[in-house]
Amino acid sequence: MDILRINQKKLTDDSVVNFEPAINVVAHECSHIYLKNFLKQYHDRLFKIRSHFLTTSKGRKIADDQWENEIDELVVRACVAKILSVKNGILAGDEEVNNQAKRFKWVNDLYIFFDLYTQNRNQYKTIEDFYPELILFLENKTS
Fold this sequence. Notes:
Number of strands: 0
Distance between the termini: 54 Å
Structural class: mainly alpha
Shape: globular
Largest sheet: none
Order of helices and strands: HHHHHHHH
Helix content: 55-70%
Number of helices: 8
């Protein structure tokens, strides 16, 4: 169905609407769901290193009260790049992480670090099993 016909149609009825969301958008939103407990579980440890996440790749300073969002988005965006790499190939993952690196200065390192998770799925049954490795990585990056 083309856009012109969609705009002419009342979408409040029971008509079927087909759409294909971009995989990176779906992966992004799903990653928020799977990673939501990371910030909660390691809140105090992340708070101690928060200042390291409040500067963009271009040197712009972000307000202190945004630290939770910045850490969450950093981790989610690295995950999205890794998901795209696994699903669509290394070039797709590299393209996504390079795009995210324009804003998030640590995203490349985190993207590479996630190889530990993807290559050892027998050791890490869920992403939550990987949280201890993830917090150590972030703490070690800031020391």
